[in-house]
Amino acid sequence: MIGSVRGRIAAKTPPQLMVDVGGIGYELEAPMSTFFHLPAVGQDVSLLTHLVVREDAHVLYAFGTESERRLFRSLIKVSGVGPKIALALLSGISVEAFSRCVVNEDITALTKVPGIGRKTAERLIVEMRDRLKDSDTPASAGIVPVAAASSPESEAFGALVSLGYRPAEATRLLKAVGPGTHSTEELIRRALQGASGN
């Protein structure tokens, strides 16, 4: 199991990134909550990881905080919730907000995340209630997001589709952000906020 990586960011294409560790490029997938806090390409980064072994691939997921990784590991143990849905959940809702949804049995808020239907939301609340009691959920450090490279709109669109939004829905969410010069991360953040009704 690869528990963490530390190296230089070689590329960022939400939700994927590549970290160069001693000449070896590790391809990782990260939730937007982690992506928003990444330094610029070429700078050093240290990330916690979780390796998922499938029949057709080994996928390495990256997290900026232990609370994010802990929640991801708990989520993928829930029946019907795989890594892709867990990644979408962490991208669309913070660890603290997810905890509140479970405690308050807020099914409506959970179903706003792509890939989460009513039955899955109900299962999440039932199965995660006890697990969350046994874990702490510290707030992640507030780090200023860094502007991304060219064509932030297309990168944000690709990230939203990767997170499970239909192309038409991703387009609608990005249009709702409104005019202005935004980085890829800011576009994704505002689109996800619009999707969750915040």
Task: Give the tags.
five-stranded mixed β-barrel; DNA polymerase, domain 1; alpha+beta; 3 domains; 198 residues; OB fold (Dihydrolipoamide Acetyltransferase, E2P); single chain; Helicase, Ruva Protein, domain 3
Question: Could you please describe the fold and organization of this structure?
Answer:
With 198 residues, this protein is α+β, with helices and mostly antiparallel strands. It has 3 domains: 60 residues, OB fold (Dihydrolipoamide Acetyltransferase, E2P) (Beta Barrel), CATH 2.40.50.140; 68 residues, 5' to 3' exonuclease, C-terminal subdomain (DNA polymerase, domain 1, Orthogonal Bundle), CATH 1.10.150; 45 residues, Ubiquitin-associated (UBA) domain (Helicase, Ruva Protein, domain 3). Helices cover 45% and strands 19% of the residues. Strands 1-2-3-5-4 form a 5-stranded mixed beta barrel. Strand 4 and strand 5 form a beta hairpin. Helix 7 packs across helix 8 and helix 7 crosses helix 9. The chain is globular, with a radius of gyration of 16 Å. The protein starts with a strand and ends with a helix. About 8% of the residues have low confidence.
Q: How much beta, percentage-wise?
A: 15-25%
Helix coverage percent: 40-55%
Q: Give the tally of structural domains.
A: 3
CATH topology label of the largest domain: DNA polymerase, domain 1
Number of strands: 5
CATH-scheme architecture of the largest domain: Orthogonal Bundle
| Rg result | 16 Å
How are the secondary structure elements laid out?
Layout: E1 4-13, E2 16-21, E3 24-29, H1 32-35, E4 44-53, E5 58-63, H2 66-75, H3 83-92, H4 95-103, H5 107-111, H6 118-133, H7 152-162, H8 167-177, H9 184-196
Parallel strand pairs: 3-5
Antiparallel strand pairs: 1-2, 1-4, 2-3, 4-5
